[in-house]
Design brief:
The complex is a heterodimer of chains A (309) and B (247).
Chain A lengths: L6 E10 L2 E11 L4 E5 L6 H8 L7 E6 L2 E2 L4 H5 L2 E4 L11 H11 L4 H14 L15 H13 L5 E5 L7 H17 L1 E5 L3 H7 L2 E6 L2 E7 H8 E9 L5 H6 L3 E8 L2 E6 L3 H10 L4 E8 L2 H10 L6
Parallel strand pairs in A: 3-8, 3-9, 6-7, 7-8
Antiparallel strand pairs in A: 1-2, 1-4, 4-5, 9-10, 11-13, 11-14, 12-13
Helix pairs in contact in A: 3-4, 4-5
Chain B lengths: L1 H14 L1 H34 L6 H25 L1 H9 L2 H5 L5 H29 L8 H28 L3 H17 L10 H5 L1 H9 L5 H28 L1
Helix pairs in contact in B: 1-6, 2-3, 2-6, 3-7, 3-8, 4-7, 6-7, 6-11, 7-8, 7-10, 7-11, 10-11
Classes of the chains: A alpha/beta (309), B mainly alpha (247).
Chain lengths: 309, 247
């Protein structure tokens, strides 16, 4: 365990009766990390997050938050923790302001600081206009924001968000992503989701969990490298026949998608390919690297054994 | 911290119509009972004068009212306590408490204090009726205080038991029915016991409540209620802890 790690998890195991929901997971989270936690339904994402937030006790293993053992000193460890569960923990009969003030007390924010903390959280989550409204009367999206506001209220070092963008409209999703990116600069964030583009746009590290085990862990760069295939997709306005393309000598494999679009596997650089296309007057209008989609990687990791990457 | 949780609990009770309805209905029934007791007292007043050491208005009017209150609350307390923990479990808001830097003990004591504060409001409200008699007559204030104290202990005990049963389930109705069953059983358990000195008789809530209502404050009775409350609070804390382990 390094001294800077905000979260360090060692050999975490969790059984529900005989069923093993989380099997020997270990990882660390440093300040400034936004860790995307991916996995199909029932993989153990939420269970892991519940254990990290102290809602569930692990069967085996250790969790340190900010260097403090969560199981030995839950009180001290939890002050550094903000948690948004899958279902936001709201009291529907309270107004947004009342609710956030109550959360501030629970999080042991000093009395003098409560007003500012609530105002800041509201402003960050776009709740400024709804402070006096009852939570039960707000739309799902706004309730979700109140849930996020509650998690960041005491500006904890570690923020755990379980599917934070569920139920939000596209504009709100973008706002929340911006918020997460901004928070990530100063906090460590763990984010679970099954929306893959969200991970690509927000996170700098990715972990994929399947059937309780970590099957993949890397930084975002590593994931992007996994995506490259060495293939290019080209669109041509005046496409030659497949044989002519092969005859150019640069191209090993050609696969025709439709009239003017091909997937080619080249032995040289994209630059060279472009030159050939121009010289032969094929009417090059598009040349892009052909990538494995995140979905493809995800499916390969969780269904197969990753060989086809 | 405990006070904050308690006040939120109290607040949320008064934000829903539940608390108001309960207070209004009980007040109405007790007012009627109080009124009939006074009527009864007027009717027999002439005979009382002839008796040496006759029971006063406190014994004949106030204490029966408190007795009726205790029986109504036996039925109503489960309705008040059923939501305390089970509803938080059902709609997931318990995660807020569990992920905050507060201990299970603080959560349980906070919830318990919240419901006890409600009971206190209730006792003050029903005590206003006998106190209004002060305008026309004299009351045995010592006996009245003993009655209020007894009622407070009894209702706290009801609440602690209800809180525990609410922590066992995520279904408020199940919590209400089981608390009612438990309280009723403990209320009547000394009926078939024959003499009150046997073990089952000692467990009875009524057996320890009735003497206090007659103005007899016994340490053993107070200890019984305190142990009763402490037992159920500890069971609740343990229950919530073990739910974290078992999920």
């Amino acid at each position: 365990m390094s001294s800077q790690a905000l979260i360090s998890v060692n050999n975490l195991v969790r059984y529900y009766g005989d069923y093993c929901a989380v099997d020997n997971i270990s990882f660390e989270l440093a300040a400034g990390d936004i860790l995307g936690f991916l996995g199909p339904n029932g993989a153990g994402k939420s269970t892991t997050m519940q254990m990290l937030s102290g809602n569930l006790a692990p069967t085996e293993g250790e969790i340190h938050i900010n260097g403090i053992d969560l199981l030995d000193k839950p009180g001290a460890a939890k002050t550094a923790l903000g948690y948004l569960p899958e279902v936001p923990p709201l009291y529907k009969e309270m107004s947004v302001d009342e609710y956030l003030r109550y959360c501030a007390v629970l999080r042991r924010i000093k009395k003098a600081g409560i007003k500012d903390a609530v105002a800041l959280a509201k402003q960050r989550c776009g709740l400024a206009g709804v402070g006096r409204r009852l939570i039960g009367n707000l739309s799902k999206g706004f309730q979700q924001r109140v849930g996020i506001a509650q998690a960041i209220l005491h500006s904890p070092q570690v923020i755990i968000l379980d599917e934070p963008t569920v139920g939000l409209d596209p504009i709100q999703i973008r706002e929340i992503r911006d918020l997460i990116t901004e928070l990530g600069k100063s906090h460590g964030i763990i984010l679970s989701t099954h929306i893959l583009p969200e991970v690509a746009s927000v996170c700098n590290r990715v972990q994929i969990i399947n059937e309780g085990r970590l099957v993949y862990a890397s930084d975002m760069k590593g994931l992007l490298e996994q995506q490259t295939t060495g293939k290019y997709e080209i669109s041509l306005a005046r496409p030659p026949s497949v044989d002519e393309i092969r005859a150019s000598g640069l191209i090993d494999q050609v696969e025709q998608l439709d009239a003017g679009r091909f997937i080619v596997n080249i032995s040289t650089t994209a630059d060279e390919l472009a030159r050939v296309a121009v010289n032969n007057d094929w009417g090059l209008c598009k040349l892009v690297a052909h990538e494995h989609s995140l979905e493809q990687i995800f499916v390969n990791l969780t269904l197969g054994d990753g060989e086809n990457l | 911290m405990i006070i904050s949780i308690a006040l939120r609990e109290l607040r949320s009770m008064f934000l829903s119509p539940l608390a108001w309805t309960v207070l209004a209905v009980i007040q109405l029934i007790l007012a009627w009972s109080f009124f009939t007791q006074i009527d009864f007292f007027f009717n027999i007043q002439s005979q009382l004068v002839t008796l040496p050491n006759a029971p006063g208005v406190t014994d004949l009017v106030v204490m029966p009212t408190f007795e009726v209150a205790s029986i109504i609350l036996l039925m109503v307390t489960p309705l008040l306590t059923m939501r305390l923990i089970s509803e938080e479990k059902r709609n997931g808001s318990i995660a807020l408490l569990l992920s905050s830097p507060i201990s299970m003990t603080e959560i349980v004591l906070g919830k318990f204090t919240g419901i006890v504060l409600f009971m206190l409001i209730f006792i003050v409200m029903i005590s206003l009726m006998p106190l209004s008699l002060l305008m026309g007559t004299e009351l045995d204030l010592g006996k009245l205080a003993a009655g209020m104290f007894a009622l407070m202990l009894l209702l706290s005990a009801f609440s602690a038991a209800g809180l525990y049963l609410s922590s066992l389930t995520s279904n408020p109705v199940v919590a209400a029915i089981s608390s009612f069953g438990l309280l009723l059983l403990l209320w009547i358990i000394n009926n078939n016991a024959g003499d009150a000195s046997n073990t089952l008789g000692q467990l009875s809530l009524l057996g320890h409540f009735a003497p206090m209502l007659r103005g007899l404050i016994d340490t053993a009775d107070i200890a019984y209620f305190i142990l009763f409350i402490a037992t159920f609070l500890l069971l609740t804390i343990r229950q919530l802890d073990s739910q974290r382990l078992q999920g």
